[in-house]
Amino acid sequence: MSAFRGRHTKIVATVGPASSAPAMLETLCRVGVDVFRLNFSHGEHSKHGAVYAAIREVEKKAGRPIAVFADLQGPKIRCGQFPDGAIELRWGAEVAITQEAQTSAPDTIPLPHPEVFAALQPGDRLKLDDGKLELTILARQGEVLRAKVDAPGKLSDRKGVNVPDRPIPISALTPKDRADLAFALELGVDYVALSFVQRPEDIDEARAIIGDRAGIIAKIEKPSAVEHLEAIVARADAIMVARGDLGVEMASEQVPIIQRKIVRVCRAAGKPVIVATHMLESMVDAPTPTRAEASDVATAVLQGADAVMLSAESAVGRHPPTAVAIMDRIIKAAETDEEFWVRRSSERPPHDLSTADAISQAAGLIADAPDVAALVAYTKTGSTALRIARERPRCAMVALTPDTSVARRLRLCWGIEPALSEDVCDFETMLITAETAAKTWTNAKAGERIVIITGYPFGNPGKTNTLKVSRL
To answer: What kind of fold does domain 348-471 have according to CATH?
Structure first.
């Protein structure tokens, strides 16, 4: 398996029935997957456990760290059940909404979520079945809400309900999520993705359970999360632009603008950001993407996303390896655009007044020199590598760490090739180890320069204070 991918933006692939076989996982890793997503909205624990074990075997064969994250389902709101399995909603008609789990009353929608029912007010919209249907609340009459149908159609049992206009006072962790979370942490996943985050306190609640056993990915898919974006980014370890529900909860024309804002805020904070949902959706069936899809992936890359994600394309699609290979090609093509690198250097974010930030900024500037082939960063916690990635240098980057969990988490980070290395104890060993890593994990060749950053005294985390330029 090739050591150097030849690109900076990472690829996340969702594992599902089409990709869960060990041989397929190995193929996906070989053609370009950096991070695997386990979707806990589907599948039994035993199946997720088997997939996780298979990924770790692939990791051993590949000889490079692979990141795995568990995506929790979150508090999915659904309508109840109808006598005939569905109800026809007619445009302009009035319907009743009750708190029942099922109903036999005509023109009535059961909504068995007391907290949602209590929060709704006249003027609020309800979007149903992934936004295909829409209601507006007219009035509250005792234990019944009256609503008008604005977007008609057939509403079937247990279809999803979105409330875009009002935060709902519910936890981001349901009882199912807590059970899934306990299992995922027992497996040893590198990140946990929280669905339907609404406020910074949702991250705090998860952190109290997770501690430092896994990083937290906050999925931005609700208007309230966008309103609290900076605070959520500050408390999470990574962010996902979850465009599926975000596009239901908000006007579709706003999603590209919000995506760009999220990427910009994450880069300024030095937090990895994933752009997800419908990136190569046509490849669930087709062997090639549409031109619009290729442009969508390239746009995410040009905006500076750390990673782009495949969902159904790799989970249930007919061509998972092809989808990964094509995404890899699109990323590489986008990253050859000279304007991409001009913009990256002109958009360097503001820095803290700290030695570590100053060293990282200087290393990033030096690394952009034409004769620099690689940048090697020693890191115990991963913070130095995150600072370097924030600078978006053009050369290849290697993060050397003695901690396997840190190496795996850094796999999600833009441009970073994480590698395991024992702590060094003197400058000579530091130079030899860095030069070997550059030759092994990048295309650096004899005679080229590399930039090395580390901390002295060696072995002390949080002490990045040394920058060295060396010639191979």
So the answer is: Pyruvate Kinase; Chain: A, domain 1 (3.40.1380)
